[in-house]
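Report of the visiting student (M.T.), summer placement. My assignment was to run the structure pipeline on a short list of targets and document each run. The first record concerns Macrolide export protein MacA.
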Amino acid sequence: MILQRLRLVSRKKLIAGVLILGLIVSVVALNMARNKQQAGIPVKTVKAEIKPIQDNVFASGRVRLCAKQEFYTFTGTTVQELNVSPGDRVSKGQVLGRLNAEEIEDDYNEAKANFIAQEASLNKAIYPREEEVEQERANYLMAQADYRNAQKNYERNKLMYEQGALSAKDFDEAELDLAVKEAAYKIAEEKLRMKETGPVGHELTSLQAQIEQARYQLEQEENKLSKTVLRAEMDGVVTAVEVALGDYVQPGTRLITIGDTGQLEVTAGVSEADSGRLRPGQKVKVTTAVQPGREYTGILQSVSPGAVVAKTSERGSQVEVPVIVKIEGDTEGLRPGYTVDLSITTLDKDSALVVPYEAVVEKEGAKKVFVVENGTAKLRNVTIGVDSALATEIITGLSEGETVIVSPGEEVADGSRVNEVKNLPAAKGGAGTT
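After the run finished, the structure tokens were exported:
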């Protein structure tokens, strides 16, 4: 009985204790919530500033000559003469070397003789000598007389054959003789006509085609012969000599390269993600490890309308857009073939009202920022201008010196109490969309 009373008293005390503990926790939680509400949501803030805004796209490329002349062989031959070495300055028209041209000279002389013969044949057909005309006229008259005699003989033999006085064989011979004499007469007549009036129609066209073919062949051989003389077509510097005197070279072998080393350009590939910010005419800074501390200037000359897949490693690749940068000003120290780093300025404004790009959020299809006013977050519509990798230009909706929240979290809403905290890590999600 006593034990039961003790257990009943202990249970009542336990229930009372739990109720008291719950009350204490509730009071503490309520006080913490009130304190938090009074303190506000901790946020990182910055002031809108007017300052320069710049953005750059980076790439690596290779230096090459803007203008160059490369000499190649077009046939298998030997290097007969070599007059220059790498680094030599050359002038337009200067002979840099020669290739063996014996076989080509033979082909050229043959083509030239054929052209002269074809030209003579055409001239002879168009402008015959008088004695040639008289000779053809005599041949024509003789063929005409033979043909008429053959006609008379045929008529006589035909009558005798019909009367049974001539065999079929003899009549066939007379008929064949008439056909032969008629053909000879027509040929003689045509030859006389051509001598008197010259070739016309398809005959003239055929003769002209023959002479044009001969002329083309001569020009081809003449072109081949001219290529055996390695002559500079520009002032410049010899950048490469890839053969030696006496070498036998196969068709298509590169022999010598010259170029203007004062006019250089860089070919590079810009990543697909950055290519949309590129425009011809943008300024470029060029640096190279070969000239540490030296900075060259350039202009973005062209941006390819298409992209290519560039290999980045044995197994990797990326999509790039080819660009060409023209080096301006001093190029001393830069050489064709050098690898260089490019910094292409895609945005450069001397004065703009800017905030960190993480401060701009998109809500309901519009760009907005949270402005802090008297410890309260106020959502405000803004019009943005240009963007850089770190900052966004604000055109309207914000004034210099106003405080904005950077990377507002989802808990920040219009009218929320906030507490500005320095060195607060950026909230996850940053300038996301809702």
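The chain has four domains: 41-53+350-420, 57-66+263-348, 68-100+233-258, 108-224. Helices lie at 2-39, 102-126, 130-162, 168-197, 201-227, 272-275. I thank the supervising group for their guidance throughout the placement.
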